[in-house]
Amino acid sequence: MKIRIKNGRVIDPASQLDARQDVYISDGKIVAISDYLDDFSADRVIDATGLLVIPGLVDLSVRLREPGQEHTATIQTETAAAAAGGVTTVCVPPDTDPVIDNPAVVELIEDRAKKAGRTMVLSIGAMTQNLGGELLAEMARLKAAGCVGISNGLSAIKNNVILQRAMAYAATMDMTLFLNAADPWLTKQGCVHQGAVSSRLGLGGIPESAETIGVSRDLILIEETGVRAHFHNLSCGKAVKLIRDAQNRGLPVTADVSAHHLHLSEHDLGNYDSLSHVLPPLRSIRDREQLQQGVREGVIAAISSHHQPLDRDDKLGPFAETQPGISGLETLLSLTLKLVEDDEIELQRAIAALTCNPADILGIDAGQLKTGAIADVCLVDPDSEFECQPLNFVSAGKNSPFAGWLFNHQVSHTLFHGRLVYERD
What we know:
Elements: E1 3-12, E2 17-26, E3 29-34, E4 44-47, E5 52-55, E6 57-59, H1 75-84, E7 87-92, H2 103-116, E8 120-123, E9 125-126, H3 139-145, E10 150-151, H4 160-172, E11 177-179, H5 184-188, E12 192-193, H6 196-201, E13 205-206, H7 209-225, E14 229-231, H8 237-248, E15 253-258, H9 285-297, E16 302-304, H10 332-341, H11 347-354, H12 356-362, E17 377-381, E18 386-387, E19 406-407, E20 410-416, E21 419-423
Parallel strand pairs: 1-4, 1-5, 6-7, 7-8, 9-10, 10-11, 11-14, 12-13, 14-15, 15-16
Antiparallel strand pairs: 1-2, 2-3, 5-17, 17-20, 18-19, 20-21
Helix pairs in contact: 1-2, 2-3, 7-8, 8-9, 10-11
């Protein structure tokens, strides 16, 4: 199908483009971005007057719950949610069931994603077999199967020798290592940030040192092995400083933060609100400010949803016994652009953190609007005030603490490989 998107404000941070242009799409690719293109007969014209036209979003951490937890969500439901959120590329962490530690699981996910046909689904392979932290996974086979990197998910590797060997192996394979840095012993007994709020609520606390110790250890081994590494979901200001210092020393490290950590703090736990139960935990207001500063400076290159759809029952019961996680695909863009409205981040940097920056981290050709590029495009209405209503999410997971929040930026259309996969009613 030939599509012309006309009269939109086209923003492409990768090329520093910000202009009112038309985007011409044919055979799944962008053939031109210009005022007018002769001899282009569109099968469909999308009038983008008053809309932002940006690259499709690239999300570095999305749990689709398939395979293994199809009773909670599926690739079908969650890729539909991704499309509704303007996300055209998602990365799946290795902690599926079975674990992504062999090519067969990679092929299964890829096959089901192709059948769904709404977003590109990329797998992050397991660092160790069954995420057990003892035997290294066959990284060469995982890379050949299409994995964009390796990780041990949320399962900490306690043995530094194993981690060092995994990093050295990944370096020789030229694979990116995705890390969730946390000291397992300091994390084990807690469920919220250790501080005044945890004391008031009588809940076990996780100190920020759990993260800083984990980041420090990993950085030492990264420097020793030369592996390219990405830190998932930073939550505290001291970790941002460690990453900044490492980057200044020339280490090949990048980092992302969740959209919810840029907006919420430990004070949003209220009276045991389990919808705000996440790992790493929501930390202090000062930490939140330092995370925002990290994004402004570019120390934190990407903003991710860290999407974790959960059953309603998973959020019921005593706070410490509930499952951590937020259904974040459909609020990722709105939360990020709300930071622009609040003058916390400038527009180009915010969009870059959702598009070209995570694509660069993955080493894939995505997150850009340019002639010849795959036509993954998101159209955003910046003046469409709406109330967040998780019960109306496309995602099977309705677990969001943002119910009742008012947003001004809403996805109106999403194109994936030149096909319209979402259109707002």
